[in-house]
Amino acid sequence: MKYRITQHPILNIPKLQHIEFTWKGRTLIGEEGKVISSVLFSHGIKVFGNHPKDNSPQGIFCANGQCAQCTVIVNGRPVKACMTVLRPNMEIEPCIGLPALPEDDQDKGVGDPLIYETEVLVIGAGPSGLSASKIFTDYGVKVLLIDDKHRLGGKLILQTHKFFGSQEDVYAGKRGIEIAEILGKQVQNHKLINIWLNSIAIGVFSDGLVGVWKDSQVYALIKPKYIFVATGAREKMLAFPGDTLPGVYGAGAFQTLVNRDLVKPSEKVFIVGGGNVGLIAGYHAIQANINVVGLVEALPRCGGYKVHENKLRRLGVPIYTNHTIIAANGINSVESVTIGQLDDKWKVIKGTEQTFECDTILIAVGLSPVDEFYKKAGIFGFKAVVAGDAQEIAEASAAIFTGRVEAIRLLNEMGIKTTEDLMVLEAKANLMKIHPPPPINRPLPDVKADIFPLFHCDQEIPCNPCASVCPQDQIHTEDDLITHLPYFKGEKECIGCERCIAVCPGLAITLLDYRKDKDNPFVTFPFEIATTKLQKGKLVTVMGDEGLLGQFPVERVRILKEFPRTQLITIRLPNKIAKLAVNLRLQADTKIEPMDIFHKPTYPDEAIICRCERVTAGDIRKWIKTGVTDVNELKTLTRVQMGACGGKTCSSLIERLFTEEGISLHNFTPGTLRPLFVEVPMGDFTKSHGGKN
Prior knowledge:
4 domains; alpha/beta
């Protein structure tokens, strides 16, 4: 398993049982319990099959069960590699064309499944679903909590960085993986909660039932009094030449491979999108010792938090604003990426094209709510509520709040009185949803103290864990508002505990200590990149916002018990640069220069829109120009949205094509949603549903 991560600065490396399986008849070793896609990636296998239409190579894309691009054949049965865990004696084959139908076509009959009744069905065990389940049980309500993954936590289990917000409300200063564990423990083994993992809600029906594919093997029906939809979001896609090559996938898929399954899927990655998802994915790549070649953002500035952007810039990652991807280049996988600068009409400026060598392109251009369950429930008259990203795309901290808010609303509707102040919770939820404002040009403070923390954050976002951990109560935010910038009061002496440095989610605090030397103070930095503890005397590169400040030896390394994954590195700096120093690197600039060649992009009409059926932008534009305004008609003409994903990955792209052709979204008919939202093998509808659950 050549591509397995064996050392990581944040994550523990568990010891899992190794078992044998076969791939294309060849015996390989994998870790039992890991999903097949990650096991194959750990062997360097990234092509899982070929499309029946044009024989194009297929690999992972969403790694979240939303599409079917990772389909493989396991013991003669087609499965999604990203959702199926490795078990002993698996014979795995690539999916070449369409899977063969079984020879035995005998009618086995379909019996009546057992119906499970519950007061509240919570769909999704991410931050909003777990928070809501805790509220329900606090007030004595019986809950069935289901999730399609094998662990509680949703996307939190992919997040190795510290979270923003407040410590009291949303565990700010803790990492997503830690918050997932906290929220999970609050509901696990509770007598009022029944938890089904590896269980996918596949449809809601007019007779008041919800179909669930339990353990990805058995079909069950749930009869809830209320449905709480906390299904999160799916990643949006861009259409460009080469967009379906293996190696082009969403940032969430990348984080799943790296942070959940400890696979190193790439050596050189390029990121498209400067929101929080793209910026954070870049930092996660660096932590996994993956070179981030660059990041493009179409807008004039990145939309994510400035501290996330600063972390990448200070680590040497080039960020190209007002740029977009032109093409992914390669034959069977990504070999390079071509980007270009945009003018004020969103057109690529001729002559600005650059091509960079890379093996992976991460698409991080936004998220779409997974809200089909909620919409269909509304059509059929279910008593349903929605929370988290399924309600509105925002940060995970906001999802924790909206889970609580909507759970309390539902309890009130059920006639159960609560003690929570709903207005206060709603205000806090809205605060966490605020879009980050432009950065502030913050002058360096003129602090008279001999030792003090220096704050390098320059954007007013909801965050105050540094104020919460100060034992001297000397760190405050302006007007004591969580969205205002922190400062050091200086009424009491800083004791140099360094807890504010270790807790800061943005790694944006340094500590200056002039007590021993006024001209060459000690400066302490947070550091989360090295997999081993740095040693005294090691040379490190010191960075400022304007670039490299020089190389200096390490004087001291501390690791606080409360923050075991953040090294606190102290070095001595000349006073003239001490306040300018914001970050450390272990190496000098490793920027990758553009290639001498330029890959002329394929004509844009050849960009794939529907990945499942390989329908191009040109195929769709042709019919729109003839007057087609009904997506259902487009289905019959092109097979768009008729593949395994049911239109989940291409619907927004089709909408964009209509608007580009001058057709308002009010003047076209969207495609009809399928009765089942997820594909299920027919044989699973015939299996026994006995047993106590």
